[in-house]
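On clarity, I found the account of how folds are encoded harder to follow than it need be. Since the whole study asks how a given chain folds, the encoding of that fold should be made plain. For illustration, here is how one protein appears when written out as sequence plus C-alpha cells:
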Amino acid sequence: MRPDDCDIMNLTALAPIPTQRILAWQSLRPPPDLVKFVLNTAGIRGILLNRRNIPIMSMPMESMLLAVNSNFLVFSVSSDDMMGQSFASLVPTVAAAESPIGLAIFVMTFRV
C-alpha cells in the first residue's frame, strides 16, 4: 500500500491497534466532568476551611483555576470555538500573577 492510496481517516490499515486494550483503558478513566467537579469542590472546601491563612488559601484557588481551565478547553473543543482556548491561555497568566502576591503576603505576615 502506497502512502498516496491511504485515506487519512483509515489509519488502521497502517498500524492496527488492539481495540480491547483501548476499551479496557477507557473504562478505568473517570469521566472528565467528575474530575472537574472534584477539583472545584476541593478548592471551595479548602478556601472555606482555611479562612485565616491567606498563603495556604491560594493553593485551593489554584485547583479551582485548573478546573476552570479544563472546562474552558473541553467546551472549546466540543463547540469547535477558539475562544475557550484563548481564555485557557490567560488562566496561567492570572496564576503567575497570583503567586508573587501570595509570596509577598507570606513575607509580610511572618516578618520578624
Q: What stands out?
A: The chain has one domain: 31-109. The chain has four helices and no strands.
